[in-house]
Amino acid sequence: MDRLKAPARLMIVSDLDHTMVDHHDKENLSLLRFNSLWEANYRHDSLLVFSTGRSPTLYKELRKEKPMLTPDITIMSVGTEITYGNSMVPDDGWVEVLNQKWDKNIVKEETSKFPELTLQAETEQRAHKVSFYIQKDKAQIVTKALSEALKQRGLDVKIIYSGGIDLDILPQGAGKGQALAYLLQKFKTEGHPPVNTLVCGDSGNDAELFSIPEYMVKNAQEELLQWHAENAKDNKKIIHATERCAAGIIQAIGHFSLGPNLSPRDVTDFSDCLLENVNPGHEVVGFFLFYEKWRRAEIENSEIYLSSVIANCCPSATYVHPTGIEQTLHNCINGLRGCYGDKQGKQYRVWVDQVLPTQIDSKTWLVKFDMWVLSGEEQHAARGTAIFSSKGESASDRLTWIRGHQTWIKGYEPKESSPFFG
Ligand code: GLC
Ligand code: MG
Fold first, then answer.
1. What are the Sucrose-phosphatase C-terminal domain coordinates in residue numbering (predicted)?
2. Does ligand 1 lie within 6 Å of residue 158's CB atom?
């Protein structure tokens, strides 16, 4: 992927549970706010890295449950598995580093001598990670005795306690911080270190992330708060955000002046969002936000809005619906009058992922994107392309839609498709 070969304007490395994902936010609003900010302003030249304790199995489950974006890099199993891109290609170099002074069988043998340890599910036992549950009051003493025992057996391990319950045993060179250090070193050697890096986490296994750069979310767990008090209280590069989860990440982007921090979802006057169409990625994000808010009746039922959306489309612009039906974009948008508020008070969200613009010539842009829709219990998705042309000569000239095309993503076809956009 080309973007992995260029210096990222911003690299965000974020933990998932209780950091990017707020399990107490049923509407997932802060996550959706982050998503539209990222896709409109950062996706094209920045890198999104998820760093989670979850194994690939549990990570994939979470992605099905929550409206999460597709990261450029996924670090799973507490920094023991690094994969790239959509197809999650593993980093073999990292596996080699982890094999040093590590023997999973010895770890299993020694840990079996501690009745205080309860083995976690089979999916969470990985090549370089053995995980247990242990009660808080026993954690410290067992960790100490276990480190001794494993050292005696010639291993060099790292034991991490998280969330007041999880105990992970990893090779000494593993962990979220080490995995990030490995990535940063790799990018530096290849000549494209990120311009800025922001790390975000809330629990024990995230602590070592902060030995690299900067930030912690509000609902931080006890062990991380303790780490902060002992190690980072006066460090200006670390903040303890006052907003929860993904909203805290947006707050940190603003605090450290890392780039735009106004999510298109938070723009109160929607005509501002529709007017600001000089960036093709932003235009796609703004359009689908308009579509969601229109159907949820969260914006006014106003001809002014519809005419400004229509004004952004060339009169001959066409749209190919995932079912194959082609019509003019003007027709489609005029048809939206009939569905104003049809999703009011219902579970209905639309978000876009992997919005990637490519410039075709001085006036034309092609944008690829995935559109996701959560409607009641059903989630469906379509892969799309949009072509835009700028009306004038300068880069700041307004963009007009020339063509849109969507195709269902296999396995995510809706039972009943909307006559409008996917
Ligand atoms: C995730 C993993 C678990 C691990 C914990 C803390 O919950 O599924 O195996 O112990 O993170 O790192
Ligand atoms: Mg967490």
1. 280-409
2. no
